[in-house]
Amino acid sequence: xxxxxxxxxxxxxxxxxxxxxxxxxxxxxxxxxxxxxxxxxxxxxxxxxxxxxxxxxxxxxxxxxxxxxxxxxxxxxxxxxxxxxxxxxxxxxxxxxxxxxxxxxxxxxxxxxxxxxxxxxxxxxxxxxxxxxxxxxxxxxxxxxxxxxxxxxxxxxxxxxxxxxxxxxxxxxxxxxxxxxxxxxxxxxxxxxxxxxxxxxxxxxxxxxxxxxxxxxxxxxxxxxxxxxxxxxxxxxxxxxxxxxxxxxxxxxxxxxxxxxxxxxxxxxxxxxxxxxxxxxxxxxxxxxxxxxxxxxxxxxxxxxxxxxxxxxxxxxxxxxxxxxxxxxxxxxxxxxxxxxxxxxxxxxx
Length: 350
What we know:
Elements: H1 2-14, H2 18-26, H3 28-60, H4 64-79, H5 83-107, H6 111-115, H7 117-123, H8 130-146, H9 148-155, H10 160-177, H11 180-190, H12 203-212, H13 217-249, H14 261-265, H15 271-287, H16 293-315, H17 324-346
Helix pairs in contact: 1-8, 1-10, 2-3, 3-4, 3-13, 3-15, 3-16, 4-13, 5-11, 5-12, 5-13, 8-15, 9-13, 12-13, 15-16, 15-17, 16-17
């Protein structure tokens, strides 16, 4: 989020989602390709919100399939609400849930766990390989900076200053609250509170309900509904961004809403494919390096084909171990190579 704050002013000034931003410079084919790649990775984020909302509804008492159908309906309805109003509701529910988590943390005697969370996190970093660390940092960072689910709020800001300051405030909030959920869960586990929770996705909702119910059973239900609203707000933001991407990639089609999102969910783990395909031309654009429309199209195709090939090779058992780092690096390298070749071929001869 702090990295996004650095670029927020420029993004706000341009006022376009990434597919339109790149499409304006490199043509409609690039625009459609980036939009469809965006749909691929955003499907995974939407699926996470659906699973989270389903876990909350099941904790309230709904059966699994009814909970899934209900959460899908609620997310669709939330996506039709005005973006500014939805953002305020989402923020209030998220803040309220965080305050209850703070209370739960102190109630379970976990203040020291939270204070030592960052040092403990740093000390545990050796469990993560350098390759996994690199892929995670680059993947998350790039998706936040270029993701339409985040960019839509930057673009909708009232002023350039609001866009930058809003991202900065969000970054500071996350630095303070990032370790809060895990710290509270560890404290509750040590206190023996989580023995009755069967589903890991229900742990945070269970803790919020458990603490609030000490005041009144109605407060417990109210907190669960507030947490559900937060999930709905995030899911609605994703649906808005995906709808915009689909509208850009299937211009003039009346079948946009029937697009098979279930097929995109199969590509849940292919965020790296999006980055390898889009990152080079996005960086070239920000640096002001001249690239032709055909060169941009070829670079996207090359990065996409290379990354997908490596994933398929892993699925077929031709590549052992983690393929994410190789897919990212080789996909980006091939994309940049194609961009450079196209630029040199287009350069005038003297």
